[in-house]
Every structure is written in structure tokens, then in C-alpha cells.
Amino acid sequence: MAFGAQELRVLRRALALALHPTPASAEDVQDCHRLAASVDEAAREGARLRAFLLADLARYRAALPGTAAGYLVLLEEVLGSGYRPHPDDLAALRALRGNPTAAALLDRCGVLAEQDVRARLAPRVPPSRTRLTALPGGLASGEPAAKPQPQPQPHPPVKNPRPDRPIPTPGEVFPPKRKPAPPPANPPQQLAAG
After folding, report:
1. Integer Cα distance of 48 and 166 in angstroms
2. pLDDT in tens, 29-78
3. DSSP tag of 129
């Protein structure tokens, strides 16, 4: 929302009155009421425009793929106004992902959808699970770490043959399988009963 020069003067006077309470003149009060009415009308107009854009977006989405260009332009416009993509939008963008604009919007909408899911699930995560993020250097909060429970090891502990390389290779962790023994060269002869 943009204010004109006169509206900014009224806003500045209103803020000055709020910070330094002094009796306001009748003209100042009247100007503040007019400014409040203008702001309310602009907010109502913004809500009407948003409702129109969302209805238009739904119409374009229903008529896909024939309206792909218009749908992508509208979706980008409503995303800029704070719209959060619906599953129908994600499905439509997946169907149009051959279009570079649709592919870029799919990436953007995927990030927004993931943020929404995380925000909805955040209150459901128990407090004990909120500190399970990996941080370089250990715990950030300075709390002592709990002792890990010993787990059964299927393989004997691996000795690192190269101390200059802290991460062992898969060959060092998993011992090679033994090859089956070759069959004997002279198989025993069986005698026929009879």
C-alpha cells in the first residue's frame, strides 16, 4: 500500500500525537479519521482483489493444460501476495513440469508446501525431539550429552589401519565374504550295488 504526500503528513502528525500526547485539533482528528477510512477501504479492496485472483486461478487450473500460460502467470502473482499452494496446484505443476516456468514454480511451491507442513507438525513434535539437529562441534546449548545405550554389534569392532584417514572404507568395515572351496580334483568313486 502506498501513501500520497498528504496522507504521509497526516500519518506523521498522528504518530507525533501518539508519541507526545497533546490535545489534537479538530482538523487533525478529522484528517486521522479520513486516513483510517482510506486505509480500511484499501484493505477491503485488497481482499476483494485477492478473492478474485484466487477464483481466477481455480478456473485456469480446472481448464489445464489449455490455459497453462495464464495459469502460470496467475500462480506467480498470487504467490507474491502470500498465497500458499494447494495440493491441486502442486499436481498441476507436476503435469506441466516440461515447461521451464512450471518447473521453477514447482520448486518454489514445493518449498512453500514443505514449510507449511513443518509449521503444522511443529506443535506435535515432543520437546525431547526438538534438539535432534546435528551441529558442528557438538551441542550448542551446553547441556551434557546423555550416555548412548550400547547396541549389539553384528561385526567385530574395526581397527582403523590408517590413522590419517578417520573414516574407514567399506572394505575395512565389512569383511570380505569367503569364497567357496573348490571341488576336489579327484572325486571319490561310488561302487554300484548289485
Report:
1. 62
2. 888 888 888 888 988 998 898 899 999 999 999 998 888 999 999 999 99
3. G
- Please check whether residue 171 lies inside any domain of the structure: no
**Rounded CA separation 56/75 (Å):** 10
Residues 86 and 55 in one domain: no
This model's pTM is above 0.85:
no
Last residue of a domain, one of 93, 125, 157: 125
Q: How many of the other CB atoms lie within 10 Å of CB of 90?
A: 16
Core vs surface per residue 28-42: b (16+ CB within 10 A) or e: eeebbeebeeeeeee
Report yes or no on 8 lying in a domain.
Answer: yes
- Asked if 94 and 48 sit in the same domain, the reply is no
**DSSP code string of 1-34:** ----HHHHHHHHHHHHHHHS--PPPHHHHHHHHH
In 3D, which of 107, 52, 61 has the Cα closest to residue 81? Answer: 52
- Cell numbers at residue 184, please? 576336489
Residue 49 and residue 87 in one domain: no
